[in-house]
Specification:
Blueprint (H helix, E strand, L loop, with lengths): L1 E5 L5 E2 L2 E2 L2 H9 L5 E6 L2 H13 L3 E5 L3 H26 L5 E10 L8 H21 L2 E7 L2 H11 L5 E3 L6 H9 L3 E4 L9 H8 L5 H4 L2 E3 L21 H12 L3 H16 L3
Parallel strand pairs: 1-4, 4-5, 5-6, 6-7, 7-8, 8-9, 9-10
Antiparallel strand pairs: 2-3
Length: about 270
């Protein structure tokens, strides 16, 4: 199995960082043998490339998170944002980088009153889309309270062939819209939450078409979004099976069959580790 989105640099044991070898070993103990490590700012993106180089179980994603784009533009101006994006492009040339992202729009932390902040996010998002297309790399999208804006920018720029909605949070019509366009939906711990029936309804859309089942992925977003029954504690790749188990139940599939399907989809997206 593959954890399609994690932040190993954020995973902790108490107050201390959890060493990458230990995180990998814990994941391997439950047959999660590969991890997509996502870097969301310059330091994290550099770290992600270094970690993927050192650990064959890991491949990297590099990006400026939407809120990072807002922060850089606010403190360093337009030129600072462009310099940061240029470094992301340089890092993306490394063969261990298989993902551009997470990128997109975040209207939860950046409100409508911050016009400049939202404009910086959109500029950054458009840059990442273009970079993914130029490098033939998977695009992973961050979409928080910004469905309409994300879909608008993708329509205007043209989505890359391999576009993944990280931690999909849309409803049933949005899931159908994305799947009809050949995009991928990655589900995380929230699909196991008691109050997330709308998200599970969106997941079940994939069961209506055999091809759509091949557009599903699973992730942790570790150390965030920990699945039930450990909600509220730090997440990690070894907890992937809890999310897979709930996904299988909602889709009416045997767990082993869903694992095989998710694994094949990840391999097709990212290539061999």
């Amino acid at each position: 199995m593959v954890d399609n989105h994690a932040h190993l640099d954020h995973v902790r044991r108490g107050d201390d960082p959890l060493a990458v070898p230990e995180a990998i070993a814990r994941a391997r103990s439950v047959n999660v043998t590969r991890i997509v490590q996502i870097g969301c700012d310059l330091d994290s993106a550099r770290w992600s490339v270094q970690t993927a180089t050192r650990h064959p179980e890991v491949v990297a994603g590099v990006s400026l998170h939407p809120t990072q784009a807002t922060a850089i533009a606010a403190t360093e101006g337009e030129s600072g944002l462009r310099e940061a994006l240029a470094e992301i492009e340089a890092l993306a040339a490394d063969p261990r980088v298989r993902v551009i992202g997470e990128t997109g729009l975040d209207h939860h932390w950046v409100g409508a009153d911050d016009v400049a902040g939202r404009a910086a996010q959109e500029e950054s998002f458009r840059f990442h889309i273009d970079l993914a297309k130029r490098t033939g790399t998977v695009l992973q999208i961050h979409d928080r309270d910004a469905h309409e804006g994300v879909l608008r920018v993708l329509a205007e720029e043209g989505a890359p062939e391999r576009t993944v909605f990280h931690c999909f949070s849309g409803d049933e019509p949005m899931a159908r819209f994305c799947l009809e366009r050949g995009w991928y939906l990655s589900f995380a711990g929230p699909v196991t939450f008691a109050n997330a029936e709308g998200l599970r309804t969106a997941l079940r859309v994939a069961a209506s078409d055999a091809d759509w089942l091949g557009r599903l992925l699973v992730e942790t977003d570790a150390p965030y979004l920990t699945p039930h029954p450990h909600r509220g504690r730090p997440n990690a790749s070894y907890l992937v099976p809890l999310t897979v188990r709930r996904m299988a139940a909602e889709l009416g599939l045997e767990e082993a069959a869903l694992c095989a399907l998710l694994d094949a989809t990840s391999e097709a997206l990212y290539g061999p580790w």
